[in-house]
Write a structure and sequence with these properties.
Length: 363
């Protein structure tokens, strides 16, 4: 089987974990601070706050910006459910705006249509590793005095004109094992606003700045030094990982070009797509549908997956929240998308094998 994802953990990460274990400081401590400092330098922000998941990063960022009951937050229905759940956790209402088919990211014109007097934030998602149209979104946000919390959980190292994902306003990252870099579980908030950063640090640590003195209601969402030690070593490698993903993706796209009904990933001008997922579309013009292609790939032991088979507005847990609203582009993409492995462990021979099998099935 060519797996759809494969975390690359080397001797460096193993040694780093053992060194932390030997110190006895295995909860949040100096290694977490070291990881925060390294990650903020990588992204290009003044602050980075480590937490225990990407979901926690989104939740804490919203709370630190004062988002709560009665507020609306515009986001995409075509993403992992944590993006919208983080809004619900604050008591605010997620308001969905449909996506553009080209990049699968939120459509800026749809954002404009969804803004009301209750809109307090926008959460664009850099889906699959392609940055959302952050410049246009920031223009809207600045004009309307709305916060932007960029869900960059799949976009470590993605850029627009050299500016990294997570550096436009507030950025949120995940370090789940399938991501471009991992800490096993973990997340990070990146930003420049010192006051918001201080609130975020309090929310993730029982509402406390000084141990045992609690100024507000908070949570225990801290990262451990064990996870941070892994993250420090992974951060040293993430650019090499990203370049391998980009190289594999470009090679696979070249080998899959001109197949009727198959749409390979788009990379917009001046954007760096880091291909957390390499996602194809199998359109109605294809010889067979997406699910039939998946069956053939499974038969050939080629890993594949659908991200995401059911948009958030159609999820049972969101019944009664979205009032039957429809998002036709998201719904169409959910029926067409299929992701293939391009992680750094995938070889050129495996890419050729994947392309050959897809071409045989679809032509």
């Amino acid at each position: 089987m060519i797996p759809i994802a494969k975390p690359l953990i080397g001797q460096e990460e193993m040694d780093a974990v053992m060194n932390v274990m030997k110190t006895g400081t295995i909860a949040e401590g100096p290694k977490t601070k070291e990881f925060e400092d390294a990650f903020k330098a990588y992204v290009g922000t003044d602050h980075a706050i480590a937490v225990n998941s990407g979901t926690a990063a989104l939740h804490v960022a919203l709370l630190a910006k004062g988002i709560g009951k009665g507020d609306e937050v515009i986001t995409t229905p075509f993403t992992f459910i944590a993006t919208a759940n983080s809004v619900l956790f604050t008591g605010a209402k997620p308001v969905f705006a449909d996506i553009e088919a080209e990049t699968f990211n939120i459509d800026v014109e749809q954002i404009r249509k969804k803004i009301t007097k209750n809109t307090k934030a926008i959460i664009p998602v850099d889906l699959y590793g392609h940055p959302a149209d952050m410049k246009a979104i920031m223009d809207i946000a600045e004009d309307k005095n709305i916060a932007v919390i960029e869900d960059a959980c799949q976009a470590h190292g993605a850029c627009i004109d050299g500016k990294k994902a997570g550096s436009f306003d507030i950025g949120c990252f995940s370090f789940y094992p399938t991501k471009n870099m991992t800490t096993s579980e973990g997340g990070m908030i990146t930003l420049n606003d010192a006051a918001v950063a201080e609130k975020a640090r309090m929310f993730k640590s029982h509402g406390s700045k000084v141990r045992y003195y609690h100024e507000m209601l908070g949570f225990n969402l801290r990262m451990t030094d064990i996870s941070a030690a892994i993250g420090i070593e992974q951060l040293k490698k993430v650019e090499r990982f990203n370049e391998a993903r980009i190289r594999n993706s470009m090679l696979l796209s070249e080998k899959l070009k001109d197949i009727p009904g198959l749409v390979t990933p788009t990379v917009k001008q001046n954007c760096r797509h880091v291909f957390h997922q390499y996602t194809l579309r199998v359109t109605d013009e294809a010889k067979i549908d997406r699910d039939a292609l998946m069956a053939e790939l499974n038969h050939q032991c080629i890993g594949n997956s659908i991200y995401y088979p059911l948009p958030i507005h159609q999820q049972p847990s969101f019944k009664g929240i979205v009032n039957g609203d429809r998002y036709p582009v998201s719904e169409r993409m959910a029926k067409q998308v299929i992701s293939l492995p391009v992680h750094p462990s995938v070889t050129a021979d495996e890419i050729q094998f994947m392309a050959d099998n897809i071409r045989v099935v679809l032509t």
